[in-house]
Amino acid sequence: MSEKKIIQSVERAILILELFSNRDSELALSEISHRLSLNKSTAFGILSTLEHYNFVQKASDTGKYKLGIKLLELGNMVLEQMDLRQIARPYLDELVAKFSETSHLAVLDGYEVVYIDKVDSDRSIRMNSEVGSRRPGYCTGVGKAILSYLPDDQWKKHLPPSLEKFTPNTIISQESLLEEMKHIRQKGFSEDNEEIEEGLSCVGVPIFNQGNQVIASISVSGPTARLPKEKMMQIAEELKDVSAEISRKMGYLPKK
Question: What is the pTM for the complete model shown?
Fold first, then answer.
């Protein structure tokens, strides 16, 4: 088995971050360079880069370095996703038991959604997907459920430069997509009517956190032949109740 390639500059940045602790919450440049046997110019260059990206910050009164807000943001994301999966899993099971179709839990990552958990339908013909797999956000039920609840200045950043038309139903106009987002917010749920794959339909709803921010979505997907409009609406109402319960457990407080 071949050894993993270690990039020295990245390793040094990680070692610097690992120097900080509850006991050593602030460290001077000289302390950092001494502990890691780095010359000061090298240590300063790495710290300046970390500071630029908010991984560390310099205390204005002492000039010493301390951990930055970016680490808190990333740490909260990890904890949120771990908590989210544990909270959502029973609901995924219940959805499959009730509708006999596949349920997904997904998060947005760049232009795509990533399935972080799923429960398969017990039927032989069902949606083919894997935990960890990715799909475009703009033409999937889980993706549109998240995009629709992002601030107006953010959702376009999660659209690829060109929108690929996967099926005749794929929306590839930003103007039409914006109208779709408005309808989703009004209804409280998204629909994928064969937009990513012919013969496949999906209903999705957003999940919110304690900061009232959309962090994920949950959906039910299956063959279009088994999901007529009436069934889709039934699933949507159930999903909205599920979303409200999961969001509440994630600390979400709806605006009154």
Answer: 0.69
